[in-house]
Specification:
Elements: H1 2-23, E1 51-53, H2 65-68, H3 79-91, E2 96-102, E3 105-111, E4 118-126, E5 131-138, H4 147-160
Antiparallel strand pairs: 1-5, 2-3, 3-4, 4-5
Length: 161
Amino acid sequence: MKFLLWAIVPLTLLAVGLIGAGQAGYLAGQTPDVLGVHDGRLAAPSKTPNSVSSQADLYPGHPQLDYARIAPLRFTGDGRAALARLATLLKQMDRSRVVIERPDYLYVQFQTTWLRFVDDAEFWLDPVDGVIQLRSASRLGEGDLGQNRKRIEQIRKRFSQ
């Protein structure tokens, strides 16, 4: 019984400490300085498996190319109207905040519930390919357990309805 108590108490204190640090904003990380569209490209995927990008193939030899590769968002009709509809959808999502909204570009931050980790997502209306290019990446950690891909696929499903 004593051993169990010695194991449970430190683990409980660690969990409470982590949640407290997250709630205080210490696990949010810093806003990346690579955001935006540069020469018709969003930033490269992260070098660790914690991001997805519809433009991953523009970075051949990237160490996480297979993990990061994801399809862009497709639409019919007017691209700017499609991006405006996407912005409305993103604003309705839990724990999302649209930081930049332009007719051809969206920058959104998603925050987890307990630890308040922040993921940065970008959506760019690509006039050449006629799609919405995207990139979503975790700020902290070596991996994201597939969360950026899962979120983008949920967005894709809602966007296509």
